[in-house]
Amino acid sequence: MVSGSHRRSLNVLFAALLAAVVLVATALPAAAMTVTFVRHGESASNASHTIDNSIPGAHLTPLGQAQSAAVAAALAANGADYDAIYTSNMVRTIETAAPFATATGLTPTALPGFREINAGWFEGWSDAGPGGIGYVLAPALWTLGARSVRVPGGGDGNAFDGRVDAALRLVEDSGAQNPVVFSHAATIMFWAMMNVDNPDLGLMLRHRLDNTETVVVQGSAEEGWTLTNWAGLPVGPTSLGTKLFVAARDLVVAPQTAAYRVAQAFGSGDIRAIATAIRDGVGAVVRAPVRFAVTVVRDVVDEVDKVIRPSAPETTTTSDTGVTALPSRIAGPAEVSEPEPADEAPVKTLRTTRTVKKPGRPATAPRVRDTTEVKRAGRPADGAANAA
């Protein structure tokens, strides 16, 4: 028979072990994902070269449907074990995902966070000339760290980055390790260059994403993201200059993000949320210069060490991701990224479920679940969708 003192000792030991397990579990970094972003096929607005962010938006053209079938075949043939499909809440991404969903048996989940950047005043303009330039000017500044700049009549970089990050957290929380996200050109390009630790801003100038081209990133919301492939082009290692640029950008982004979150908290009217946002914001701003100094010193020392110490011969590998690169492009006209509804607009939380491929599933058209209620923009139903 166990005495009372022994029982108490066992209880204490069990509690200590449980606490240790919880501590270790919370300290472990989130498992890295490989996210393959796919731009949608040609839509009617692309064909007419019109910037249009109406929701649900224009349908794919016959060429866009053919592009969707081609990219589905390319994805299925490259040997990657894709385990989830996500789309934005716009028709063109849902239709683009359909052939791939049929081929894999996976059920797409629509997340509004993956929609296109709001075009603001440039809604309805041609994607060429002043309209196209004006539309992407603010997002280009976001990639340099000026996230508080707003698209005229639209949102700023903080709101844009926040809602894409939130959508990716839902994907991560679902347990997916190799998801495919069907989204839009501006959203994919600018989010990637704002967040990866090896941005090459020249890629957007040298190779803007065409219909159904892909961008692959690896990482997690906690550990950060690394760009591995851009439209079929492998992305090389990060140079010292890029590392220093990212460190400086993170330094100037910290106070902007803190101010944005405090403003959002005040807008909610929740006293506790306001206090938390202020506390977290002050902490982030105070830590930013320290992190900047440590990062710069570490990166410079590492670079000097590489020069002083001869490195061992490197083994050539075909791909950091282990995934065969997709064709550079599927035939179709180039387009400018399409706009989206206001970034600040509240978006209802969607249920995210991970689906598992079932053997022997008939090749029926996939069913897309989008639990959000989005008001259609005040435009005629036959208006062309955004050009992105």
TrEMBL record:
Keyword Hydrolase set for record: no
Extent of Basic and acidic residues compositional bias: 367-376
Signal sequence annotation: 1-27
Record's keyword terms, sorted: Signal
Entry GO terms, CC: cytoplasm
GO molecular function: phosphatase activity
InterPro entries for this protein: His_Pase_superF_clade-1, His_PPase_superfam, PGM_Phosphatase
Spans annotated as Disordered: 331-388
Keyword Signal: yes
PANTHER family the record matches: BROAD-SPECIFICITY PHOSPHATASE YOR283W-RELATED, PE-PGRS FAMILY PROTEIN PE_PGRS11
Name of the protein in its database record: Phosphoglycerate mutase
